[in-house]
Specification:
The protein is α/β, with parallel strands linked by helices and 412 residues long. It contains 16 helices and ten strands. The chain has a ten-stranded mixed sheet, with helices on both faces. Helix 2 runs parallel beside helix 16 (376-391) and helix 10 (244-258) packs antiparallel against helix 13 (292-308). It is globular, with a radius of gyration of 21 Å. It starts with 5 loop residues before the first strand and ends with a strand. The relative contact order is 0.11.
């Protein structure tokens, strides 16, 4: 990628029929970052796994003819804890069922994942304060910029650099006008976000009108772009966020203690008591949350989100973005403290008062949970929602209001 070099040793390739999904690390803003690339393959024997593996590296080694030129890129920004590998199955299903012409790209948060190069080493963590700035005595040392993984502003900058690299890659790989007129041939963009990823997408589109102009649609899944949970949750989370200088060391110390327990004990706890019934999801959770530096990154960023997100909907941002492209939002039940049902009701009232564009369509599915991606039985309804929305782009988006799935209770 133009955003940085890739790490071939960390590459994982999956194939489903004519779909190739590649998980690899790529350097963005100086931080090795997990990314997912999902494409339709033109291999004659699409079910031949060896052929798919041989031609799986879109950006480094694959001949141009081995992949279908996508007219549309689905750009996915995950929710906390910012690890994109949880969503590979979900994104693969969406691309497969949309058919030729669509590809998906997803990216983790800077500093969120597995491995010292990804999350930072003890020296980098020790020599920066919680704002991401080097401590006074270390300001002349060459250190990675901790503001990238530790602040919302840094994460937004990280996502913008990622998108710029993807568009450059697409032009280099597929555009016939890449040399004569590089700005003419561009893919359409559809953003899909989950939870706090919605805030990052909203901010980057406001900062980069050129990316917004290229965007055909936005899909927010359980968006956490305002902090206004029920009163008890609000009190507890606000106190934790305001006492971050105490909470962060305490939680990282608990993670250090947890590393002394057998891994299978923690796995059993996640399955039986936390409800993570997806083996891959539990493996990822174990890999990331049994790392004190990853926990610190997660807490520094997450507690800043609680302190700084607005309490009320950002109707100005919604109007500015809504003037350029339409948005579809999925809310869930169970209940959801990050994107509760009354957030959808507030948006509908703003629409009635003409403060929020009518082009924003919303759906509530009661049976879904905010962490749908680690519950295999909940992935398919969300896939269906995305397919219904993308299939309706350019048509009457009011059709979303008739969307139903068998045995799923929904509220409009």
């Amino acid at each position: 990628m133009k955003a940085g070099s890739t790490d071939a040793e960390s590459e994982h390739v999956f194939s489903v029929k004519s779909i190739v999904a590649v998980e690899r690390k790529t350097s963005i803003c100086g931080w090795p970052t997990d990314a997912v690339f999902i494409d339709h393959c033109n291999a004659k024997n699409a079910e031949d796994d060896s052929a798919l593996r041989q031609n799986s590296s879109l950006h480094d080694r694959a001949p141009r003819r081995d992949f279908c030129k996508p007219h549309t890129l689905l750009l996915f920004v995950p929710g906390n804890p910012g690890v994109v590998h949880w969503y590979t199955v979900f994104l693969t299903r969406v691309v497969e069922r949309l058919g030729m012409g669509y590809a998906a790209r997803g990216v983790s948060y800077a500093g969120h994942g597995v491995g010292e190069a990804v999350v930072g080493n003890a020296d980098e963590h020790r020599r920066s304060d919680y704002s991401g700035s080097p401590k006074v005595e270390d300001r002349n040392r060459k250190l990675r910029n901790m503001k990238i993984p530790w602040t919302m502003d840094g994460q937004i900058q990280h996502k913008i650099s990622w998108i710029d690299g993807l568009i450059d890659d697409w032009r280099e790989q597929f555009s016939s006008n890449s040399k004569s007129n590089p700005s003419k041939d561009k893919p359409n963009l559809i953003f899909i976000s989950h939870s706090i990823g919605a805030h990052f997408v909203q901010c980057l589109l406001l900062r980069r009108p050129d990316i917004l102009a290229q965007t055909a649609h936005i899909i927010h899944l359980m968006p956490f772009f305002r902090f206004d949970p029920p009163p008890l949750k609000r009190f507890m989370l606000s106190r934790a966020a305001s006492w971050y200088e105490f909470v962060i060391p305490m939680m990282t110390a608990l993670v250090n203690a947890a590393t002394n327990f057998p891994r299978r004990w923690v796995d059993f706890y996640l399955e039986r008591y936390v409800g993570l019934n997806c083996p891959k999801g539990r493996k990822i959770a174990l890999d990331i949350f049994l790392n004190p530096n990853m926990m610190r990154n997660h807490l520094v960023l997450g507690l800043q989100e609680i302190r700084e997100l607005p309490e009320m909907p950002n109707d100005v941002a919604l109007r500015l973005i809504g003037g350029m492209c339409s948005t579809s939002i999925l809310f869930c039940g169970c209940p959801d403290q990050w994107a509760p049902l009354f957030h959808m009701e507030d948006l509908k009232r703003l629409q009635q008062n003409s403060k929020v564009p009518k082009s924003i369509k919303m759906l509530y599915i009661e049976e879904l949970r905010h962490d749908f991606v680690v519950h295999p039985e909940m992935i398919e309804p969300v896939v269906g929602f995305c397919l219904n929305v993308i299939g309706g782009i350019g048509k009457d988006l009011n059709a979303l209001e008739s969307f139903r799935l068998p045995e799923i209770k929904s509220k409009l």
